Amino acid sequence: MILRLLRLLLRPSLLAVAAVGIALIVYALTVIVPLVDEVRHALVSQEENTRAVIVGPASLALRINEPEESARIAVEISRAPLIDGIVISNDKNRVIAGAWQGDVMTEKDAVDTILEGNMTRWRIDDGVGRQGVVFVAFDDAWPERLESRLAMAFAVLGAGILVFALFVSISIRDFLSRAVRALQRAAAAVAGGDYQVKVPVDGKGPFADLARHFNKMVADLDASTRALRTSEERFQLAVSGSNEAIWDWDLQSDRLYLSPRYAELVGLTEAEVPAMFATWRSTVHPEDQARFSHALNNHIHHGATFHCEFRVVMRDGGWRWMLGRGTVLRDGTSAPVRMVGSFADHSEQKATRVQLEREKERAQVTLKSIADAVITTDRSGHITYMNPAAENVTGWSRRTALLRPIDAVLDFVDDTGTASIVEQLTTGLAEDPKARDLGQTELISQLGETHIVEIDIAPLRDRHDRFVGGVTVIHDITERYNLMRQLSHQAIHDPLTQLINRTGFEDRLNQLLKSAAAHEQTVHAICYMDMDQFKTVNDTCGHAAGDELLRQVSQQLQKHIRKGDTLARLGGDEFGLLLRHCPVEKANTIAEKIRRAIESFRFSWEGKTFSVGLSIGLAPFDGSPGSSAADLLSAVDQACYIAKSKGRNRIHIHHPGDMESSRWHKEIQWVPHIHQAMDEGNFVLLAQPIIDLNGEPGQAHQHYEILLRMRSSNGDLISPGSFLPAAERYNLMGTLDRWVVNHAIEMLAMASVRNPQLANMTFGINISGAVLSDNTLLDHVKVMLNAYRLPPEIFCFEITETVAIANFTHATRFVRDLKEIGCSFALDDFGSGFASFSYLKTLPVDYLKIDGSFVRHLADNEVDHTMVDIINQLGHVMGLRTIAEFVENDRILAILRRIGVDFAQGYHFGQPRPLSEVLYGHPGTQTLPAAADTADTPRVVTSTRA
Questions:
Q1: Is the Cβ–Cβ distance between 219 and 304 less than 8 Å?
Q2: What are φ and ψ of residue 619, in 5° steps?
């Protein structure tokens, strides 16, 4: 009855029921729940209560390590039961945060509080490897307050529950039960994924509104779920199609999400994928760390686009290139909170790009390093590239020349050359795609320098073989061109006098002969000039003086020739002159003018003055058939030789049929015969006895002169008077002398084994002037005598008087050197010279051989008789023994005995016979024609030319 009464009274006051209920709930949450928690703490020890409360939040503050967030956590902890204050520090004793009874402490206050020593400390761990220390100050009065608060709370709670129970049981029991059940069923369906469920809406009121809002919320949730599912499907398809890995980095917690594709890219399992950004960042290649951090910071703090290439380590230890892209997300204060993006495998693209860059670099280095200029143009002939060599040769920089027409950069001396290149590059190569050589031309650079260049062009085509431009290659041959010109000049010019040399002279002579053959009645002249006394200057003052003499003489010669004539140095002290369109009379006048100029010229050197002369051979010529440069040179050479033989410093004109020239021409015919005889062994050594007029009658011959003969093709022996003049003139005497010396020593060495008497004999060997200045022959004789162990005393070397006078210094040295080892010497043809007596005083010879021209007519000519007598007396006064040549009868022999000559040689005692017969004791049977041996001076050794 009472309950019904109360229900009736309270039924209209549903708001009061709600108010009481809400008050109870609020009171329970704000008072009872904390008291329950404090009671739970009171049931265990104070330290365990506190540790359970603060360890988790303190570890979180340590991990976050952010001042504001850590301070907030410390304030919350300081408000916990049993606690007055808390200080959190890291493992480096650095205070992270501190609070006292809900207020934030400064770092100094926190340190001072710790130093008071009334706080309990525990070590904490942030869960990712970092450690720290938490300091706690406990509230000692807390138990008494807890008891009072519990009493009050339970009293209030009891009263409230009583009132609330009455209201609920009376007023809203039925209503609440229906609404709650409907909501429960709908919530369960939604939790199960059924977004089609709806809560019935009955009438009006809070529960009806709640039902309508609940139904709308479910409908919106259904639509969002559908849209999200569609978006996720599209996202997954896009990610799968792009083959990229997705990453999501929480900047607050440092947690990182990487999609499964990332694990596939680096060869990891999903469990091995790093969950923290710092851990993943350590997998970036050390060389890329700085670049990655710079790109990341620029994006987060400065808003730059994050697009970075870097390498990450793979499971097998290798490295894979990644292309990272991302965008930072910010909160309402613009602070960065998250960053999302993608990682793409960029290894192949990177490798391809690196290869392309290497190829490009190699191509650029190649183009820069090659010496040829390379210019590429487009279809219209505008420049698209120039290498450094092109810049050098054109004088244009690549930057300035770029996109200019090529004809504005290439400036040729021949304007048609530029036009031709433009036409070829723009039209020709497109129509006929073949590389082509445009030949040689002159290019003028922008600086005004002239280059000799060779031009090549070739087409440029794209991958579809379409014409896109051309390449011009310019080869600068200026240096080579100048070198060729220099070499060409040197090839035909004498380096000492800068005159045309023999090669250039012969070329111009051949050209003149061809010109003369084409124009009848044209007469030219050629001169061959040989200096007189040049050898004297050269030997007296040295080669430097000789070179200077040649230079000065060449300058003198150039003063007296006509414009258009050709003056050349043919070699040594010999010059050639071509006189164009010059009859022989006029040529002779010019030659005489030149001869007189050189005759009056005086050469001075180191205080000494010399006069020189010029022997000139002159020959006219025209275009007659059969004329050749070789024949003309031979003719004027002979004419020059005749001029020298007639006394030097004169002119001799060569005419066809000239008897003197013919005789000298015959001499040259002996040159090949001499070479052939040398090669085929057709030279023969003979020996003629020299009789001691003071010896006993019948005494065996002990002194011989070795003579040289040439064997002809039919076996006849040819006298040396036939071939020696040619050998002397064409510098073959040294070769013949070596042959005679070598074979004579070899034959004597072999014969000495079987004939011991050779040691008591003497053999004379003639020496020409050509070898007196040749130290090698002197040394060669010494070596051979030593090698064959022959006594030097058996050799008597003979030198003609004129040779000794002409080569007095060398002759004296040669004689003294061989006399020192035991050889003897004879001065041959004595009396034929002009200064015999003065030179004889200083020349250390052993014999005087009286010239046969005095002996031959001794019995019939008083002058010859007197000359022989004087020469014999002179020799004896000087301690020399005398030998008379050409003793042909008893009358001459008797006079020689009466005069007192020591030795005699001639046909009266025996004709020359082979040396082998003399050496081995065999009688000779060979005789020679009287005409061949009447002038048996076997070696004409005096040269009539210096």
A1: no
A2: -145, 130
